Amino acid sequence: MFEQCHNSADLIPKPMLCLKKRTLSAYPHAHTFSIVARDPATGEMGVAVQSHWFSVGSIVPWGEAGVGVVATQSFVEVSYGPLGLELLKAGRTPEEALRGLLAADPHPEVRQVAMLDAQGRVAVHTGKSCIPFAGHQVGREYAVQANLMAGPEVWPAMARAFENASGDLAERLLAALEAGQEAGGDVRGRQSAAILIVQGTSTGRPWADRVMDLRVEDHPDPISELRRLVRLARAYRYSNQGDVLMADGKIEQALQAYAESAKLAPEIKELAFWQAVTLANVGRIQEAREILREVFAAEPQWIGLLDYLPGVGLLPADPRVVGALKAAATPP
Question: Whole-angstrom Cα distance, residue 47 to residue 249?
């Protein structure tokens, strides 16, 4: 797919990875609508996308903490993602990076690409041969883009929704997707969606710098399913924060984090179970029993797990503690 060559415009590092010419049918047909955006308050950068194409999240959104994010769509040349990030990391502006990649592309007329860097600068390209309705709109530290839409109202509706939405970056990205779908969305229908959010600065630990990376590969209502996954991601993040706070001896803060986790995802009984275990570890047995009563009623398999926890240091090595917690399985 690639061969080394040089770029006369000198817009990208040499040697350059040039694209060989291929028929358009050889490219993934991820015609779609998406948004790239930066939260000026936190520096977080994100991409959100929906398409009538399987696993759109595996090809359209790209991001790296401290560098930027890319959405590559329409007749997708996936390399715009990793190469675009490389160019941004090398100090190119989004406009320079995108111009260089388009210059090396034998089919720029069918590409739709958006790039945003850690400073909030944006560059977007909608090729003249993208399937109508197609277009984009750039705002302050964000851009929305769409092709093969049911009408030309899709991307302006996304822009308005993003600008008017409140909450964190994930919430605002979801609002943009929902508005795009409400305005007509992909003319072919719905299939997959994704959201990717990275930190504004890098810690050097990519696994820690990825705030959110969620995909709905195939679903009749992918945006609603994506919203559900975002809610669960927030719940598990609170649970993880609780673990860290407990390790630091910040018990009340940890318990508050666990409670927020269970509140966000009451259907996930495991989150409530570990909240109760934490309460038991600090001597608050009655509170733990009240939580476990509901857990055991819904999912009895958690009762037996209590027997294993003292041996690995997750409960006091006192049979009376385990017995008291197991008693929550007996109706009052």
Answer: 36
Lookup: tokens for 215: 């995909």
Per-residue pLDDT at 331: 75
Asked whether 273 and 258 are in contact (CB, 8 A), the reply is no
- Give the span between the Cα atoms of 293 and 328, in whole angstroms: 5
Indicate whether this model's pTM tops 0.85: yes
Six token digits for residue 322: 């385990």
Among the residues of the chain, which ranges form H helices?
Answer: 80-89, 94-104, 154-164, 169-182, 206-209, 222-247, 251-264, 269-281, 285-298, 301-305, 319-326
CA angle 185, 150, 226 (to 5 degrees): 10
Q: What is the DSSP secondary structure assignment for residue 20, as one 8-state letter? A: P
- Residue pair 200/69 in contact (Cβ under 8 Å)? The answer is no
In this prediction, residue 6 carries a pLDDT of 40
How far apart are alpha carbons 269 and 316 in whole angstroms? 22
Q: Which amino acid is at 268?
A: I
Q: What pLDDT score does 16 carry?
A: 41
